C-alpha cells in the first residue's frame, strides 16, 4: 500500500497534537493537585464534589452565624452580670436608707446615689452590638429605654390607671397629698406637694372639669371621676409620689394578631404560644354557629398543608394553640377563606443548622422591667406588673420613698429587691444556656466541615506520586512523538540518493 507524504504529515501532526494535549492535561493536574477537573473526568465523583462544595458553603455560613450569635449573647451576658452587681449596690443603699436613725438629708443623699445607679442601668439597658440595640426586641435602631416620670400611690382604693399621664421633669421626687376628699373632675379639690422631702409645702387646687395637678416643674393628669380622700399624717387617704421611671420603647412577644382573608364578617381570636405564622384555611362552606368545621393548616406559609382537620366547636386547634371564631357583622364563611395567626414576635433569630436557630436579642421589659405602653393603650403601665420581677419600677419606687423619707416604703422595696435579683439572675442564666448551645453548635459544625473537607479531598484530590509519574510519562511520549515527527518531516527522495 502506498503511503503519501501528505498522510505522513497528517499522522505526525495528529500524534503530536494528542501528545501535547495529554502533556497539558497532566501539567494542569500536577499544578492543581486535582484528580477531577471536569465532569467528564469522573461524572460520579463530580456529583459528590458539587454536593460537598455546597455543604461546605452552607456549613461555613452557619459557623459565621454562630460567631455572630455568640458575640450578641456574650455582650448581653456581660451586661447582665454588671446589672447583677448594680442590684447588689442598690440593696446596700436601700438597707442604709432603711436605718431609722438617718436624717432626711442623709436619705436624700442616698437618693442621689440611687439616681446615679439608675442612670448607669439606663446606659446598660441601651447597650448596642454593631449599632443594634440588644434589649429592644426588633426595634434594633432605637434605644430600648428612656427616662420618664412615674407615680407611686399609697392609696390602695384607687383603681388601676388612675394616673393618665405625667409631664415635665424633676430632679427630685415630689410628694403629693390631697387635703380634701371628693371626685376628680366634679368637685373642687385641694392638695399640697413638696419637692424637698416634706420640709416645705406648696398648695394647689383642682377645679371641677379639670383633671391635671400643677406640681411646679411637672404636671400629673388623673383619670376623670376617680374618688380621692383627704390624706392624714397618721396614714390613710390619697397620696402620690412622682419619681423617676424608665419606659421600655422596644417591642414585645405578648400579643397575637389574626389576619383575615375573606370572612370579614367574623371575629377571630388566637390563643396559645406561637413562634411563627400559622395559616388556617376553611375547607367547606359553613356557619360559625353550626359546627363542626373542616379546615386545613400550614406551618410553612402555604408550601404544605395538613388537611382533614375537624373541630367540634368554634375553636380550630393548631400546633401551639387555637383560633376561635365568632359571629360579628356576619356568621357565614366560604370554602377557601383563610386566617393567619401572626405572633407579635420581637425575636431576632440566626440559623445555626438546617433545622435549628438561636435567638440573639432580648425583650428588655421581660428582664429589667420598667413601664410600657402596649399598642393601643393610652398610658404606660408597669410591665411586668409584679414588682418582684420588675427591677426598674422597684428602683424607681425606692428612689421616691427614700427622697420623701418614707421608711415603710423603703422596707417594702428592700424585700422586693431580693426577688428582683433572683429574676435577673435567672434571665442571665438563660442567656448563658444559649451561649453554651451556640458553642456546642459551633463544635458540631466544625466537625462536619472537617469531615466534608476530607470527603471532598478523597473525591477530588490526586496522589502526588501518581501525578509526577503521569507527567513524566506524558513528557517522554511528547518528546518521542516530536522526535519522530521531525524525522518524518525531514525525509525526502534526496535522503535515498
CATH topology of the largest domain: f41 fragment of flagellin, N-terminal domain
- End-to-end separation: 22 Å
Radius of gyration, rounded? 38 Å
- The shape is elongated
Low-confidence stretches: none
- Please give the count of helices: 7
* Average pLDDT taken over every residue: 85
In what range is the share of β-strand residues? 15-25%
Structural class computed from helices and strand pairing: alpha+beta
CATH architecture of the largest domain: Up-down Bundle
Helix % is: 40-55%
- The count of β-strands is 26
CATH class of the largest domain, please?
A: Mainly Alpha
Characterise the protein shown here.
The protein is α+β, with helices and mostly antiparallel strands. It folds into three domains: 5-33 and 462-496; 77-252 and 364-437, f41 fragment of flagellin, N-terminal domain, CATH 1.20.1330; 256-343. Helix content is 41%, strand content 24%. It is built from seven helices and 26 strands. The chain has helices at residues 5-32, 43-97, 104-125, 364-367, 391-403, 407-460, 464-490, and strands at 128-129, 132-133, 145-153, 163-168, 174-178, 182-183, 189-194, 202-206, 212-214, 218-222, 227-228, 239-248, 256-261, 266-272, 278-282, 286-287, 293-298, 306-311, 315-318, 321-327, 332-333, 338-343, 349-351, 357-359, 371-372, 381-382. Strand 1 (128-129) and strand 2 (132-133) form a beta hairpin. Helix 1 (5-32) packs antiparallel against helix 7.
